[in-house]
Amino acid sequence: MKKILAILTVIFCFGVTAAFAVDGGALYKKRCAKCHRDGSESSKSGGGVVLKGQSSGEIEMKMNGYADGSYGGKKKKTMIRIASKLKGQEINAIAEYIGSM
Ligand code: HEC
């Protein structure tokens, strides 16, 4: 009986984690790819930045920097609007995804 309970608990936990985990790749495609394409280039409205090759730590730092106003170039207004709408967990997941490109 104890064993079955343990197994059920594990299955339940996996289910819950999967349901709440943020999919960085899906978020990227939905919220970032319009301007940053596949990360190796950016459209004109994407400021021409290249995200591919940057570490997840760098991306996270820059995103948080846009959100709190401590980072950015000439076109930072665009990114401030985007970054400040994302939750920390979402920034983290997207940064992980970009870091693994
Ligand atoms: C409407 C177009 C647009 C969208 C959508 C967009 N960005 Fe950007 N992004 C820009 C522009 C423009 C810049 C350059 C801003 C500047 O001058 O600082 C930029 C810069 C960045 C930078 C800084 C790059 C560097 O090395 O300095 C990061 C990181 C970034 N974007 C990540 C993202 C992520 C992650 C998303 C999705 C959540 C996203 N962007 C969505 C337009 C966009």
TrEMBL record:
Q: Which InterPro entries match?
A: Cyt_c-like_dom (IPR009056), Cyt_c-like_dom_sf (IPR036909)
Domain Cytochrome c, which positions? Answer: 19-101
Q: Which UniProt keywords apply?
A: Heme, Iron, Metal-binding, Signal
Q: Which Gene3D superfamilies match?
A: Cytochrome c-like domain
Q: Does the keyword Transcription regulation apply?
A: no
What's one Pfam family here?
Cytochrom_C
Signal peptide per UniProt: 1-21
Q: What is this protein called?
A: Cytochrome c-553
Q: Which gene encodes it?
A: cyf
